[in-house]
Amino acid sequence: MSQSEAGMSGMKSTRIDALFARLRQENRPALVTYFMGGDPDYETSLSVMKALPEAGSDIIELGMPFSDPMADGAAIQAAGLRSLKGGQTLAKTLKMAEEFRRGNDTTPIVMMGYYNPIYIYGVDRFLADARAAGIDGFIVVDLPPEMDEELCIPALKAGLSFIRLATPTTDDKRLPKVLENTSGFVYYVSMTGITGSALADTTKVSEAVNRIKRHTDLPVCVGFGVKTAAQAKAIGASADGVVVGTAIVNAVANVLGSDGKTTADPAEAVATLVRGLAQGVREARLAPAE
Amino acid sequence: MNKPIEPNSFRTGPDEQGMFGIFGGRFVAETLMPLILDLEKHWNEAKTDPAFQAELQALSTHYAGRPSKLYFAENLTRHLGGAKIYFKREDLNHTGSHKINNCLGQILLAKRMGKTRIIAETGAGQHGVASATVSARFNFPCVVYMGATDVERQKPNVFRMKLLGAEVNAVNSGHGTLKDAMNEALRDWVTNVENTYYLIGTAAGPHPYPELVREFQSVIGKEAREQIVEQEGRLPDVIIAAVGGGSNAIGIFHPFLDDKNVEIIGVEAGGRGLDGIEHCASMNAGRPGVLHGNRTYLLQNDDGQILDGHSISAGLDYPGVGPEHSWLRDTGRVKYVPILDDEALEAFKLTTKLEGIIPALESAHAIAQAVKTAPTMGKDQIMIVNLSGRGDKDVHTVAKMMDMEI
Ligand SMILES: Cc1ncc(COP(=O)(O)O)c(C=O)c1O
User: Structurally, how many domains does chain A consist of?
Assistant: First the structure.
């Protein structure tokens, strides 16, 4: 029995499960796109979110801004600060998901960020509101399995997925603990480092993906360092999904002038990038692996 | 907030999960988790290893200059006209503050773990200097993260670190203070987790740091206890220490926590007053939240975004506090009070003139509380103030506050 079944017993199939079932048939990896909710303001950001699935994104990671993002590089730090300066709050990020859901009931939305804003919002209230907004799961960077009582267990009880990060330092001995309460998919962090760093050796990444797959039936998505269609294609050969974040956040930043006003349409800038990445994941399994 | 039930002893924490009541824990990225568990394992072995303790003891004595003196501040006592005031002279330690106690302990742990590179965060630069010092002594490369604002206001210490061979990286995010330095140090650690030891400078961060830093700093309180009994024949009535992250304070408090008759006061940076956001009094004006690996009192807004805070003293300019202090606050065992920038500055000048001791601005916060409390006490009563460091590093800041050029 997979962990997702354990966590979701009695639940109907989730959007995440349905997506991966479909992609297995298509024999291609998922394109998972991260963007920062509220960057540079609510309306612009919502337009970016809406553009993502149309351009070929399969799963949306909705970034929750935090003042002190200790696992993020300069690009996502700056995006978070722009968003907070633009008045974003956790309540607004939830509202953004809700507005998006009115026009799209299939693309999974995973909220990603840090624990403190959720803790202050109140875990029970947050889970109830997230469910109502059509959220599918969470990735919370600073909640390792040792802290599962905080949010992971309550989230699973509420029928929402808790997607855990596995990293190069998560060895075989520790993997079962990391996977125990994971559901939806596993997020493999391709390197020891922060977001926005250079991509790790792809051979090593695929070895790691295979290692994790020996421990779980859940899909394994790989993130940190993937910026181009070629990289998405290379990583997607072995991974069930490819996560792109910094490149998308940069696409927004690149069309902001020094005064913070947009110089071109951020949604279109992001869509152009995502179309290329979507092409990449669609080619990942066409050529025989080198 | 419900007051937790009073425990039989205040000295048994943390529990196995690293919790002091609801505070503490291990809120870190998965990348760091295996390392933190490894650190815990090595720490548990080291704390009961006589060889480790002997090496630390020898270094404390011959390198750091321990025990530090317990000095009767006769002139200040007479001036205030109340309780007898003693200074625990951590300013006399090698490198000029209590920070060396922790650094010696942790560098031995780093060695034991086979790490080859040291990183540290610093606010006032005292921890940076102490880290650079032990790194030089034990031949480790050392990288210190320091907020850009602090680099500016603690110039002498920046130069000392560089002389000692450390690389000092100025951090520009946020207000460029201790919180930002800690974020950047954590980013370095996540990136270089295989070979790097993160030498945290205060009794905060993920478990086991709050415990191990406390243990390395508890030498202050253990000595003070013996010294006051030797000099006065009894325990003190009041103990006062300044609280930044809380390492000097927990160091002097911990051995006295179960002595019910000893009143314990921690002093937070009140900055320009608690009404606005220009202070660092997390336990007086903040609420519990999660940052830098632990749950503790934090200055934050209603959305859980951390505020920058302000203090004249770089070492107290941090929006959080070590988790054990949060617990001691909620249980009521320790009282935490704010002292304003101006009050600290007055205490700085007073101590310099009356005692011929230039205290660190951090320590001056503790002295400022003594200035308030001592006159309310009887002449036969006894107070110990932790003089956590010397003020040489602060002369630029003080000159600026006094509109003077140096
Ligand atoms: C002399 C001195 N005292 C106190 C502090 C505050 O730190 P802590 O609360 O950890 O003792 C510092 C920090 O830099 C310091 O340099």
Answer: 1
CB A49 within 8 A of CB A100: yes
In a domain? residue A214: yes
Residue numbers in chain A where pLDDT is lower than 50: 1-10, 289-290
Q: Taking a C-beta distance cutoff of 8 angstroms, is the pair B387, B96 a contact? A: no
Per-residue DSSP letters for B273-333? -SSSS----HHHH-EEEEETEEEEEE-B-TTSPBP----SSGGG--S---HHHHHHHHHTS
Closest residue by CA, ligand 1 atom 5: B315
CA distances from A218 to A46, A113, A267, B61, B283 (A): 30, 22, 32, 56, 43
CA dihedral defined by A121, A126, A130, A136, rounded to 10 degrees? 110
**Residue A245 domain-assigned?**
yes
Name the amino acid, one letter, at A170.
Answer: T
Specify the amino acid at residue A91: A
Which residues span the domain enclosing A104? 3-190+204-282
For B171, nearest residue in chain A (alpha carbons) = A74
Residue of B303, B306, B308, B318 to mutate, testing the A interface (most A Cβ within 10 Å of its Cβ): B303
Residue A94 in tokens: 């939830």
Distance B40 CA to ligand 1 centre (A): 24
Enter the ipTM.
Answer: 0.96
Cα separation, A247 vs A254, whole angstroms: 10
Q: Identify whether A60 is part of a domain.
A: yes
Determine how β-strand B84-89 pairs with β-strand B382-387: parallel
Distance CA B316, CA B322 (A): 12
CB distance A262 to A255 below 8 Å: yes
Length of chain A: 290
b/e A12-41 (16+ beta carbons within 10 angstroms → b)? eebbbbebbeebeeeebbbbbbbbbbbbbb
The two beta strands, B117-122 and A109-113, are unpaired
CATH classification at residue A157: 3.20.20.70
Q: What is the pTM (predicted TM-score) of this model?
A: 0.96
CA B360 to ligand 1 centroid distance, Å: 9
Could you tell me if B211 and B167 are in contact, meaning their C-beta atoms sit under 8 angstroms apart?
Answer: no
Is residue B164 within 8 Å of residue B133, measured between CB atoms? yes
C-beta separation of A61 from A161 below 8 A: no
Residue A289 included in any domain: no
Per residue in B261-315, pLDDT tens? 999 999 999 999 999 999 999 999 999 999 999 999 999 999 999 999 899 999 9
**B133, B177, B202: which to mutate for ligand 1, most atoms within 8 A of CB?**
B202
